[in-house]
Amino acid sequence: MKVYLIALLACFSLHQASAQEASLSVTGEVTHPLQLTAAGLSKMKRTTVALKDRDGKEHKYTGVTIPEILDLAGVTTGKQLRGENLTKYMLVKCADGYEVLFSLAELDTSFTDRTAILADQLEGGPLPAGKGPFRLVVPGEKKPARSSFQVTEFIIRFAK
Ligand SMILES: Nc1nc2c(c(=O)[nH]1)N[C@H]1C(S)=C(S)[C@@H](COP(=O)(O)O)O[C@H]1N2
Ligand SMILES: [Mo]
Which domain of life is it from (predicted)? Predict the structure, then answer.
């Protein structure tokens, strides 16, 4: 009886932990809606990019490239990104209500050499409090305003 109770409690607390675990969802015009967790992200191919903060100081962020995440969700990329697919966009939503938008072509490796990533690390450590657990890092822009922190959702849609 006691063992059962302990097992039951263990299951319950595990369930609670997973329910509270931060994640990022990829939904909308996708063939495989995703719910990416920190653990899942850490198992994917890692890429490091540099981003200047609002004071012009450069920092190194590490994570997974956005095209790799979009491919995993079955979003149109590469050769599929033609015709009406060029009217698709990715809306980024954050825990603090901040939102930014990209056309899919802006993020695609067949259109641009700059590599946007979903970062979970800054200079080899976790992201600072209030900026994590995931930050979209967009190099090659004059200001870091679209490099959104506390990202919770990528929503893919047609603009028309
Ligand atoms: N979630 C979220 N992300 C955000 C913002 C915000 O208010 N909320 N501000 C943006 C703006 S306007 C700037 S200039 C940069 C600042 O990034 P930094 O702290 O690395 O300089 O974060 C961007 N990302
Ligand atoms: Mo800003």
Answer: Bacteria
